Each structure stands twice: as structure tokens, then as C-alpha cells.
């Protein structure tokens, strides 16, 4: 299928702008390994220009053009962006699929979610107006107090490649709704749809400098952006190593950050389940988006009494997954995003085998696909808690399995991780589900399912999965500061000091 990639530049101050050093990065189709275009590679010089544009846009006309305008005013732009995304859904979905490797059906679903997220934050932007000057109850009648919610300022939004446009939207939409101005730096491995978002912003007339989009390498564009003294906050989704580096640089300026840093999430399957329903949710929880999900429930804990039968059923389900070019009808597993990710995933599998685990299913390149970064959906058993495959995030279609004998053991194994993003429990006992949900040490819990995500509900983790929340009202709060305003309303003098004697 011929997909045209527009030759885009950086988007700064409402205009396309060539990178100062004129460098570009090739775009590789992960299904064919062919170069299909290129994107601009921003550097510190471009970051300087973009931050300056965002800073000026924040304060332009004393903020009346954006930051201190009404939420209703900003909501009109968010709704216009949502409408354009819907209008261009088919084109954007195809670009997402060819750039990231995700099946076309998933990419089109993502575009619906992108539009829905902009609509949702348009509603919350309008709601902000009514919440301004919320009164604070005080114990002294001589004072009255209220609270203002104000945008934090210029924000840096650094996003990953597994949901290129959707995860960018999770940050862009609430940041703009709050009245911030922003610089978005998507991953260099999948930036094409984020540059199309820039085109959408131009079409709807978003004020210049409100959203700037810099593509490029993390070391050359992301690092100078995160450490820039005029950036007031950094919101980051990505690896622990990069998140730690961003936190260290932000600490020098006492700059707020919010972090979503992935996980090694568990899914517990108890003995009272419908085996086929549980098998499908187990596969979806780990193999959706080609296994490249920060919240993937990639550690299966199954009750020992059903383990043999359940794993047999799981393998049969896995064999039915269609692995193909993302554009083929019925594709349910495409390639991982890059050659580097392909090599990393196969190395994880090889290490698991060398440490004594059993590759129950998959573990190789699919025999019918000679090109592309394809990895079979893989199930690994005979895993111990000291193995790399149990402890480290793969970010590929790899599920590791352990059995348990009772609920307490299952919970202990589930929480045996440095991460704390997601967790799932599958059981027909509602009380047990409630107990396990409460016992999980994670920011998200799924009951009798895995991975559903709604923009109305908070998203984020604990422990090394990060802190702060995207989505819902919590996502908007990420980009707002709270200002207390207290007024003395008595006609009487304060009377603390002895007044000077009257002449």
C-alpha cells in the first residue's frame, strides 16, 4: 500500500521551520525495514527558539491571548483539533501503522481515542471557569479567602513511540486546556503523526507558540528541552533511565516533573474462571500493541490446579493470532518498532532460556515473514523470581508464567517487583477480586480484564513506575498551580502593634 509521508519541518511559533543544523532522521517502516521518508532532527539551537516562542505565547497580550483567557476560549480550539483528527482519521491511522508497526485496526482505534481525549479536555477547560475563585472556609470572620487555578507556564512534553499520537495527546490536551504553552518532543522512532498534529494546529488557527513540536533524538533535543531554565515543568513518559536523568536535571532548578516509567505488571488467574475468557484477556494484556505497552500484564500468575489446562488453552489461542504486515486484513500482531527493539526482545528470550526457563510457545521470528522486525508471541514457563524475564520490562510480545497455590502467595508474587503501574485479577468471586485489587501495589487495577483505558480515569503508577497522573481531572491538575488569595475585610485596624501617639 502506497502511503505518502509529507516532508515536514519542525513546528515552532505556528510555522514550519527547518532545523538550524538541517539534520534529518530516516523513517523506517518496521514491517519492511525500508526507509519511507525522514523527519527533522532538532538540536539545542532549535530548543532555544521553541522555548522562547512558548514563553512569549504564554505572556502575549498579558496572557489574554491564551494563558489567562477563559477556559471556554481554549476549549474551542481543542474541539476544532478533535474535529480535524476525526476528519483525517483514515490517513492518520495509516501513517501511525506504517511508522510504528501497530495493526491498522489498532491505529484507527487510537485516532478515535485521540479525538475523544481532546473533546474531554475541552469540557474540562470550560469547567475551569466555574471553579475559579472557589471560596475557602476560614475560622475568622475578619478574613475571606478564595483559590485561583492558574497554568504552570511553559511545559515540556516528552512522549514515547508505542502510541505516538495518543500518548502525546494525553499530555498536550490537558496542558493546553489548563492554559499552558508547550513544547512536544515525541520519540524519534515514531514521530510522523505528531508532525501531522502540527498541521492540524495550523489549520484550526491555534495561536502561534502555544504548541511547538520538535522531533529529534533524546540526547540532542529531549535533554536540552528538559533542562531548559525557562521550562516550568516536564511531563515524561518513557524509560526509567531517561526519567531518572530528567529528574536529576529538574532538581537543580526545583522544577516539577511527572513521570510514567513503565512496568512489569502481573495478571492473576484464579481456578474459578472461564478458561477461554481468561485466556483471551491474558493474551490481550500482553500482546496488544505488539507487546509494547508500558502497562502490559506480562507476568502471568495462574493457580496450580488449572495451570496445565490453562497454558494448553493459552497456546492454542496464541497460535490463532494473525502475525502480518499491519495493513493486512485481520492483523493482530505487527512488528516491533525498530531493529534495536527486535534485537532486545530476542535477547530477553535467549537469556530466559539460558537461565533455565522453558520457551513454551513462540520465541522466534515467524517463519512466513523474512523481513521486518517481527517476533512471535512468546510464552515462557519454569520461571523463577530471580530471572531477568521476571524482573525486567521487555517491551515486546513476551509473557512469563508462574503458578501459585493460594491467594496470599499470588499477591506476594504479584507485588514482587520494583514497578507499580498496572495489575489484573481474573476470578468469578467478587469479594476475592475486591481483596486482591486492594492488595495490589499499583496505580491501576483491572478486574476480569486487562488494558482497557478511558480518558476519564486516572493513569499512572507508584514505585519505579513513576508519579503524577495522566488523564481524567488528575491529568488537568498536572498543569495547574493553586493560588491562595486572602483578604482582610474588617473595618477595624489589625491592632497587633502599638500605634504611634497622635499629634
UniProtKB/TrEMBL annotation:
InterPro entries, alphabetized: Ald_DH/histidinol_DH, Ald_DH_C, Ald_DH_CS_CYS, Ald_DH_CS_GLU, Ald_DH_N, Aldehyde_DH_dom
Taxonomy, superkingdom: Eukaryota
UniProt EC number: 1.2.1.19
Biological or metabolic pathway of the protein: Amine and polyamine biosynthesis; betaine biosynthesis via choline pathway; betaine from betaine aldehyde: step 1/1
Catalytic reaction annotation: 3-aminopropanal + NAD(+) + H2O = beta-alanine + NADH + 2 H(+); 4-aminobutanal + NAD(+) + H2O = 4-aminobutanoate + NADH + 2 H(+)
SUPFAM superfamilies for this protein: ALDH-like
Keyword NAD carried by entry: yes
Gene Ontology MF annotations: aminobutyraldehyde dehydrogenase (NAD+) activity
Catalytic residues in the record: 260
EC class name: oxidoreductase
Keywords carried by this UniProt record: NAD, Oxidoreductase, Sodium
Positions of the Aldehyde dehydrogenase domain: 16-485
A single BP term in Gene Ontology: cellular detoxification of aldehyde
Family: Belongs to the aldehyde dehydrogenase family.
Entry protein name: aminobutyraldehyde dehydrogenase
Amino acid at each position: 500500500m502506497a502511503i505518502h509521508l509529507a516532508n515536514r519541518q519542525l513546528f515552532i511559533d505556528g510555522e514550519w521551520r527547518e532545523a538550524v543544523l538541517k539534520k534529518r532522521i530516516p523513517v523506517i517502516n518496521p514491517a519492511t525495514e525500508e526507509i519511507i521518508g525522514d523527519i527533522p532532527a532538532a538540536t539545542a539551537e532549535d530548543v532555544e527558539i521553541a522555548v522562547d516562542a512558548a514563553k512569549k505565547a504564554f505572556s502575549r497580550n498579558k496572557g489574554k491571548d491564551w494563558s489567562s483567557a477563559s477556559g471556554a476560549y481554549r476549549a474551542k480550539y481543542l474541539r476544532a483539533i478533535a474535529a480535524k483528527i476525526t476528519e483525517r482519521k483514515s490517513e492518520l491511522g495509516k501513517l501511525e501503522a506504517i511508522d510504528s508497526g501497530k495493526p491498522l485496526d489498532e491505529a484507527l482505534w487510537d485516532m478515535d481515542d485521540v479525538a475523544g481525549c481532546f473533546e474531554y479536555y475541552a469540557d474540562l477547560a470550560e469547567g475551569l471557569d466555574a471553579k475559579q475563585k472557589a471560596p475557602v472556609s476560614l475560622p475568622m470572620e475578619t478574613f475571606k479567602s478564595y483559590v485561583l487555578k492558574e497554568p504552570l507556564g511553559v511545559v515540556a512534553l516528552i512522549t514515547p513511540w508505542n502510541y505516538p499520537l495518543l500518548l502525546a495527546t494525553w499530555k498536550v490536551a490537558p496542558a493546553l486546556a489548563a492554559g499552558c504553552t508547550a513544547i512536544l518532543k515525541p520519540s524519534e522512532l515514531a514521530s510522523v503523526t505528531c508532525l501531522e498534529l502540527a498541521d492540524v494546529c495550523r489549520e484550526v488557527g491555534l495561536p502561534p507558540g502555544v504548541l511547538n513540536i520538535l522531533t529529534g533524538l533524546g540526547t540532542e533535543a529531549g535533554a536540552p528541552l528538559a533542562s531548559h531554565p525557562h521550562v516550568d515543568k516536564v511531563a515524561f513518559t518513557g524509560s526509567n533511565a531517561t526519567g531518572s536523568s530528567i529528574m536529576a536535571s529538574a532538581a537543580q532548578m526545583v522544577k516539577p516533573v511527572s513521570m510514567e516509567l513503565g512496568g512489569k505488571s502481573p495478571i492473576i488467574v484464579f481456578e474459578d474462571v472461564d478458561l477461554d475468557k481468561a485466556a483471551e484477556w491474558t493474551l490481550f494484556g500482553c500482546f496488544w500493541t505488539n507487546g509494547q505497552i508500558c502497562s502490559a500484564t506480562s507476568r502471568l500468575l495462574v493457580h496450580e490446579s488449572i495451570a496445565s489446562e490453562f497454558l494448553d488453552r493459552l497456546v492454542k489461542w496464541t497460535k490463532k493470532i494473525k502475525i502480518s504486515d499491519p495493513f493486512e486484513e485481520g492483523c493482530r500482531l505487527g512488528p516491533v518498532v525498530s531493529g534495536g527493539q527486535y534485537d532486545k526482545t530476542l535477547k530477553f528470550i535467549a537469556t530466559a532460556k539460558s537461565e533455565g526457563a522453558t520457551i513454551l510457545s513462540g520465541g522466534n521470528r515467524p517463519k512466513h515473514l523474512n523481513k521486518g522486525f517481527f517476533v512471535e508471541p512468546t510464552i515462557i514457563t519454569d520461571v523463577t523470581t530471580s530471572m531477568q524475564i521476571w524482573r525486567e520490562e521487555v517491551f515486546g510480545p513476551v509473557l512469563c508464567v508462574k503458578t501459585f497455590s493460594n491467594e496470599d502467595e499470588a499477591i506476594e508474587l504479584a507485588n514482587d517487583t520494583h514497578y507499580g503501574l498496572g495489575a489484573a485479577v481474573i476470578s468469578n468471586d467478587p469479594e476475592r477480586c475486591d481483596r486482591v485489587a486492594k492488595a495490589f501495589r499499583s496505580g491501576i487495577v483491572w478486574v476480569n480484564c486487562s488494558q482497557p483505558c478511558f480518558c476519564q480515569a486516572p493513569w499512572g503508577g507508584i514505585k519505579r513506575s513513576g508519579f503524577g497522573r495522566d488523564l481524567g481531572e488528575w491529568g488537568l491538575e498536572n498543569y495547574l498551580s493553586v493560588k491562595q488569595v486572602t483578604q482582610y475585610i474588617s473595618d477595624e485596624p489589625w491592632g497587633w502593634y502599638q500605634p504611634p501617639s497622635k499629634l
